[in-house]
Amino acid sequence: MNNRLITFTFIISLLLPFYTQAEQASIPWNSLSTDEQQVLKKFENRWNDFPAERQLRLRTGIKHWQQLTPEQKQQAKEKFKRWKQLPPEQQQQLRNRFHSFMELPPEQRQRLKKRYQWFQQLPPDQREQLRARWESMTPEQRQALRERRQQMRQQNNLQHRTMPPRQFNR
Known about the structure:
Elements: H1 2-15, H2 34-39, H3 52-67, H4 70-85, H5 88-103, H6 106-121, H7 124-136, H8 139-162
């Protein structure tokens, strides 16, 4: 179940448009393209009541959706269907994790995305072994593992900065 939460959190982070802090002017319904109006039709009567930030997120989401391949759209629909079947408490937990993820520094978010992609490339049996190993660890063991990984990352960064440039023979 924990893997599902991580998967959904990652998917949400990819599919939801980025947050904007800047004040935005409202987007009039008539300024939307015909395609945008068609997709957002169920919001037409409430459109002007939405905050400008939500209008922008919806509009950005439509543009993102239109760029997806049919296969990606189908996958997104299936994942959304699974999302709707989750209990409300689990949905809220995922939203909270997504917000926490978005508050991370960009380099840390990127590192987590790469780690997730690496994990997804593993054979299913190896993923299951790692998942089982992680779930069998105590919170203290998990924290110790995180700290070791952080130390290794810092050491690798130091080595790259202190190593002299390579000399190539010509």
